[in-house]
Amino acid sequence: MPEILTMLLHIDQYLGLWVEQYGAWIYLILFLIIFGETGLVVLPFLPGDSLLFIAGAFGASGLLNPVALALLLFVAAILGNTVNYHVGRYIGPKVFSTESRFLDKKALLKTQAFYAKHGGKTVVMSRFLPVFRTFAPFVAGVGSMPVWRFQAYNFLGAGLWIFGLITLGYFFGNVPIIKEHLSTIVLIGISAAAVPVAAGVAWRFIQSRRALK
After folding, report:
1. End-to-end CA distance of the chain
2. C-beta of residue 70 within 8 angstroms of C-beta of residue 163
3. Most buried by CB count within 10 Å: which residue of 32, 62, 70, 74?
């Protein structure tokens, strides 16, 4: 198990080996990784951004079919979020309906209000933020975000994330300087996506504090 975890966390180093060892089965493996990260709240550590970028680079090298790969992972991302959403929608209200001093029912109402107002952009933007993309659909389900609305933004976010990163990997993944500093580049990309989100949360917190005065 630790060895598999190491391989997953260093997908940029092991993907080539997997392609060589598993042949066409690699498509199923990558499908399950993307589905697992987006569909199961217990697997937020699985690689997403780096996997898509590296897979795009392998597509440019001819080792993978980039079109088939992108379509397959697009489906995986949509299904993952859908499963996660419905799990949250099913168990969320049940959990908060129990009498417990450890659960705040007001939190559920606040979550519902938040997703009624900001749910769409949250579902889309979370695609580019590790950990957040695993929990966002679950919380959307807990917050009872309308299914049709969730799915609209689910498709949009999945398309931007999957096709965007695979395309970037296809055109730039084999550039030597990018290959050598992939981890740093991915970290910078994540930071660039996270900063506006953090700034927005901070601004709303400040505004709410001012409103209470």
Report:
1. 53
2. yes
3. 70
Is residue 86 over pLDDT 90?
yes
Residue 74's identity, in one-letter code, is F
Tell me the mean pLDDT in the region 107-125: 75
The answer to whether residues 126 and 13 touch, using CB atoms and an 8 Å cutoff, is no
> Do 60 and 170 form a contact (C-beta atoms < 8 A)?
yes
> Would you state the structure tokens that stand for residue 95, as one six-digit string?
């959990």
Q: What is the pLDDT of residue 99?
A: 55
pLDDT digits (tens, 9 = 90+) for 10-31: 666 678 888 888 888 999 999 9
- Which element (helix H / strand E) includes 16? helix 11-22
Residues 156, 46: contact at Cβ < 8 Å? no
Q: How many residues does the chain have?
A: 213
